[in-house]
Amino acid sequence: MPCLVIDHEKCLNSGQCVYLQPELFETDEEGAPVILIESPDGALVAKAQDAISMCPGQAISFADGDAR
Ligand code: SF4
Is the dihedral of CA 44, 17, 22, 62 positive or negative? Predict the structure, then answer.
């Protein structure tokens, strides 16, 4: 199952993902984005892909998670 991940080395803490897709991301107390749903499915996949394409740091991606 693909797993949504943030590369915090690349993240610019712009907050864009949280603003655009609050179902999938929130901001922690230090202003860094946190993924709320690591394995989105259904309509959330398109939202995740939207966040991936909008991220100014190209920090969000789908990684192969615990592939069986
Ligand atoms: S949109 Fe990208 S750069 Fe901005 S906070 Fe989210 S992960 Fe970080």
Answer: positive
